[in-house]
Design brief:
The protein is built from 4 helices and 4 strands. It is mainly α.
């Protein structure tokens, strides 16, 4: 299983965790697998948050640098938008920022495509509701015993 599939599975398990599955074994499988994957999911989410936060902090600084200023020298904001943007200097700095962050994004995307070795708890499909969509079943395949 690759990390991006693990994140998709985590999302589906979180959705199912609040539903009555009609089977104690199905509910147990959902809860047990949430616990099994929790540390990996947390690490992936923290990495994504750091990359996003670093980019947004730098982008905000560029916005404040190039926006129109009020009489106190503070960037003007109207309707949650910086006044005077975009402009040529802003666009140039933003493109440089994007180019600077692209290797980090590419590395993170490669990280998400890496195989991981994780032992999931499996249970028969009969322990899940018949109302699952085909997409949900595909997502849950790693925890469905054949």
């Amino acid at each position: 299983m690759i990390r991006s599939d693990l994140m998709t599975l985590a999302s589906e398990l979180a959705t199912l965790s609040s539903r009555d599955l009609g089977s104690i074994k199905g509910s147990y499988a959902v809860a047990k697998n949430i616990k099994i994957i929790a540390e990996d999911v947390k690490t992936i989410e923290e990495l994504k948050e750091k990359i996003t936060k670093d980019f947004e902090t730098a982008r905000t600084a560029i916005c404040e640098l190039h926006a129109e200023k009020d009489e106190n020298g503070t960037a003007k904001v109207e309707n949650d938008n910086y006044v005077g943007l975009p402009n040529e200097a802003f666009n140039n700095d933003l493109q440089a920022l994007i180019a600077d962050h692209q290797p980090k994004i590419d590395e993170f995307n490669s990280f998400l495509k890496e195989e991981i070795d994780i032992s999931l708890f499996k249970v028969g499909i009969e322990h899940f509701p018949a109302s699952l969509t085909p997409m949900q079943v595909m997502t849950l395949m790693p925890i469905i015993a054949e």
